[in-house]
Design goal:
The protein is an alpha/beta fold. It contains 10 helices and 12 strands. Strand 2 and strand 3 form a beta hairpin. Helix 1 packs across helix 2, helix 6 packs across helix 8 and helix 7 crosses helix 8.
Length: about 300
């Protein structure tokens, strides 16, 4: 039995995961997103509520990554975490070791161990939500790299074919212009709709209107699918995964799974596209399940 926590911008979800991948317990609380110390306290309170009489190992998925050798958080769009020794602070309060990893890495771990990619050798996991994260697993082993940024495709520059589909340059929260995240995150979809159709709608509303066959929203989703396919082609050309699993709120747009294979054709360095584009198995539970998998030994 293992404990997994998913630290999000608005909620903290903690679970107890059994060895067969079933969730035995679950706790969900609001994230005190304006107060770092209270965030640490809330995380520890959730863990202590989940712990049984025999201490279980704890894994935590969080936005951003740990910068080495300083062991301080970096690259988090929950900016109050950046520059903070999050893992050390949690361990000091609990009194024992925990494992902490990027939330997109936890997502792809959950899908590789128990979800859509359970029988697939190499899988790239993509988070399409408030931001745009990614993670890469080969033979159920997470690939992280010396900079702890493997999979951070959202902060590569958009391909030229995507630049042709937006009206003006976009500034990313990281400070650079035209990162992939500025186009294919929820905010990116919202900006595209504003540019093309003049209304400022949330991504969820655009998706709902497209499902109801609204003409403008449907066209916007088609544009988004083309932008996403062009961006995903950079992953396929670089690491050629057997499958890509989509996660995050925008992965719930059903039409993407029909549109993406067609738009990928012509953008990768091959005559055919053999990479599978998969729906996630666990929805918003993926992060916590994957965090628990940080303690799974092959």
């Amino acid at each position: 039995m293992r404990i997994g926590l998913d630290l999000g911008g608005t909620k903290i979800e903690g679970i107890v995961l059994s060895n067969n991948g079933c969730i035995d317990q679950k706790i969900r609380v609001d994230t005190p997103s304006e107060d770092y110390e209270e965030t640490v306290n809330t995380i520890c309170n959730v863990i202590e509520k989940l712990q049984g009489s025999n201490r279980m190992p704890v894994g935590i998925g969080t936005p951003g990554a740990i910068a080495l050798p300083e062991k301080l958080m970096k690259n988090s769009n929950s900016v109050l975490l950046n520059g903070k020794p999050l893992q050390q602070d949690i361990q000091a309060k609990l009194g024992y070791e925990i494992r902490l990893e990027n939330d997109a890495n936890c997502f792809v771990l959950s899908e590789a161990f128990y979800g859509a990619a359970i029988n697939i050798r190499s899988v790239f996991g993509v988070i399409l939500g408030t931001g745009c994260g990614g993670g890469f697993v080969i033979d159920k082993q997470l690939v992280t790299g010396p900079n702890s940024i493997a999979g951070e495709w959202g902060h590569n520059c958009i391909p030229a074919s995507v630049r042709d589909l937006i009206e003006r340059d976009r500034i990313c929260y990281c400070g650079r212009q035209n990162c992939i995240e500025t186009v294919i995150s929820g905010r990116g979809l919202q900006q595209t709709y504003l540019e093309k159709f003049g209304n400022n709608l949330e991504a969820k509303e655009i998706a709902q209107r497209a499902k109801a066959e609204d003409t403008a929203a449907t066209k916007c989703i088609e544009i988004y699918a083309e932008q996403l396919a062009c961006s995903l082609s950079t992953i396929i050309n670089m690491v050629d995964p057997h499958a890509i699993v989509l996660g995050g709120g925008l992965s719930n747009i059903e039409s993407l799974y029909d549109l993406l294979p067609n738009y990928l054709t012509g953008h990768i360095f091959n005559d055919t596209v053999k990479t599978k584009i998969l729906r996630p198995a666990f929805g918003d539970a993926s992060g916590a399940i994957g965090a628990a998998c940080l303690w799974t030994e092959n």
